[in-house]
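Appendix B, record 7
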Amino acid sequence: MKRAAVLLALVACKKPGPIEIAVPEPVDPWSDAALAAYVDEIVPLVEKHAGREFTTRPPLEVFDPQAFAVYVGKESKLIMDTIYRDTPEPVRQAQADADAKAQMGGLFGKFGIFDGKTYIVPSAIESAGDELGDDGAVKLAKLVIAHEITHALQNQEHDAREQLDHIVDLDHFHGWSAVSEGGANFVAFRVAQDLGLEEEFWTLSSHQGWGKDGLAEPYAYDIWMRYGRGMHMLEEVVEAEGMEGFWRWHAQPPVSSSMIFRPATYATELPPRPVDLAEVLRGTDQKLTQGPWMASNTRLGEYTLRGEAIRTGKEEEFDPILAHLVDAQHLDLTLPDRKGDIRVMVFDAPEQAKAYLDLLRAEQTVEGQLLAKMLGVTVEVTYTEVNGVDGDASLLRTQRVPVGVGVYREERTAWVVRGRHVVAVNAASFRPGLRLAATLNAVFANLEAAGTP
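Structure tokens (predicted):
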């Protein structure tokens, strides 16, 4: 009986079911609570390294794609109105819309100068953070927030819209942009060091085409100049003047892009120009092609000239010649189906103008070689003299890039030296024919009418 009872007991026992383990809900790194925690952590660090305190807590939001696109377009239009004053308003609006659309694909975050909010773009941050392993997106998010919240502090101290009202041309805008983005990076880098995220900072920079050693990709020159060189520029300023210098540059951004590369030459006003080169160039675009060009009539600053040299590895060779450049102006031109550029450069002696032309031949040859390597095609480059324009020396460069069977994208650039002046005209994606010489002659005629020596 005892044995039967035991068997009965065994039969009656149920097998234990699976053990249930409570799994916590996944943490949403973009929830309102998470964003608030990021702000709580980062704001004191930004204030510490910027030497200024927020008067109100900076709001942080995840962007709404449709609303954000409208917002970015509005900001782009403000900038277009600032630096393209010689362009018809409908053309500025169309360009602003196009720029906004292009920006949307590469944004990690943005400070909104119209509403004072800081926005982040989770999809872009997550994509870039994948290579950093666990919590990579959160780490990058903190760096993006530090950068954008610094913009909020900059704007609190010096209203960006008011400053843009005082920008005189594109070269001045380059100086303002380098201070704005460089200043935000200056603070964000130090926040990264406090958080133990210095390597993540350089990973984020690598997505912009630059890093610890400077410019990594020639195409990224514009970004590196503002974020990278701008940061190092302000490091030099702070080393010499402390944080008071940092904020002085914010209050009055450098009026010339040359000061980005040589902070010791900082000035808030340009020396008077013997000749109004903007007026010399005004209207000459209609000689190249009649129509509503998207035109920026601006000083031809070191930002542009150095960028052209960097892209072809000739920066060191240009430096001694550009030291003799007295003044320069250019019309940067865009139509839907073509681009153009009209320049006038004034050197302190005729021999320096000729030396510049000699270097251009070598520089432009290198550019063609780089383009051929990048595209994997044969790029045809030929040189001849410029016909129909009197000068002491001239050079016409024609570049043909194959884009199909028997189809080429052509670009022509003509330089003519006359005394201390170099006048250049570039025509891309169209054949200017006799209009090239007509444009050059129009610029020289305007120079003579202005009484230039």
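Remarks on this record: Residues 1-15 have pLDDT under 50 and may be disordered. The longest helix spans residues 350-375.
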